[in-house]
Amino acid sequence: PPERKRFYQNVSISQGEGGFEINLDHRKLKTPQAKLFTVPSEALAIAVATEWDSQKDTIKFYTMHLTTLCNTALDNPTQRNKMQLIRAAVKFLETDTVCYRVEEPAALAELQKNEWDPVVTWAEKRYNVAIGSSTSILGPNIPASTKETFVSHLASYNMWALQGIEYVITQLKSLILSMGLIDRHITVEKAVLLSRLEEEYQIQRWGSVEWAHDYDLCELRARTAAGTLFVHLCSESSTVKHKLLQD
């Protein structure tokens, strides 16, 4: 949506029957489909309230990634159920960024091997699966057992967290990098760098459009970080919640 003038002074949260609500002065925040904006955890409510409170003279909706994710979870505009969300996430394995390798130039092939192999190896050990990589345009042949293992793992998350997981996967174009990030094996900065490895290689070689590269990088980091935080806050982690409230 376009920017609009900030129409409220104070932002607060309150607990209602369905969870935690966001108050803009005396107005209750609503979703695009006019549902009451209610989130399952106090920590997530605080994070969303911070997004609204940080807006200046105008409300820049495109900077409010947590609010957008909550709206998606509440309105479910695509009307997908839990298994459909899981299957969509696992389907990314077939085109996973870190599984597609080049043969030429040799320097990029070596870079991919050095940077991506450790993450693939971690995932194979962490989930006891076979993933591999391929230089074929058809990509690697991912075993059915590997896909089913990830289906089972993702089924342990609730619907809200799954919305966040799919969002992170869409940013990184990689289920493997996303799970490494959500499992705290790699940082947001590392995950983003690995997802853009070929682009960063070309930039190092040929240079970049200065402002465009910096903007794209910052935007991708912001979206990836927001999605990861959303997953943790929706997974009802008391550790994350306690730390956020302390900060």
From TrEMBL:
Q: Which Gene3D superfamilies match?
A: ATP12 ATPase (1.10.3580.10), ATP12-like (3.30.2180.10)
Coiled-coil stretches noted in the UniProt entry, renumbered to this chain: none
Membrane topology, from the record: Peripheral membrane protein
Intracellular or extracellular location(s) = Mitochondrion inner membrane
* One Pfam match: ATP12
Give the primary localization class: mitochondrion
UniProt keywords (A-Z) are:
Chaperone, Membrane, Mitochondrion, Mitochondrion inner membrane, Transit peptide
Q: Tell me the GO BP annotations in alphabetical order.
A: mitochondrial proton-transporting ATP synthase complex assembly
Which Gene Ontology terms of cellular component type are present? Answer: mitochondrial inner membrane
Q: What this chain does, per the record?
A: Plays a role in the assembly of the F1 component of the mitochondrial ATP synthase (ATPase).
Q: Which family does it belong to?
A: Belongs to the ATP12 family.
**Subunit structure, briefly?**
Interacts with ATP5F1B; involved in the assembly of the F1 component of the mitochondrial ATP synthase (ATPase). Interacts with FMC1.
What's the name of the protein?
Answer: ATP synthase mitochondrial F1 complex assembly factor 2
Taxonomic lineage: Eukaryota, Metazoa, Chordata, Craniata, Vertebrata
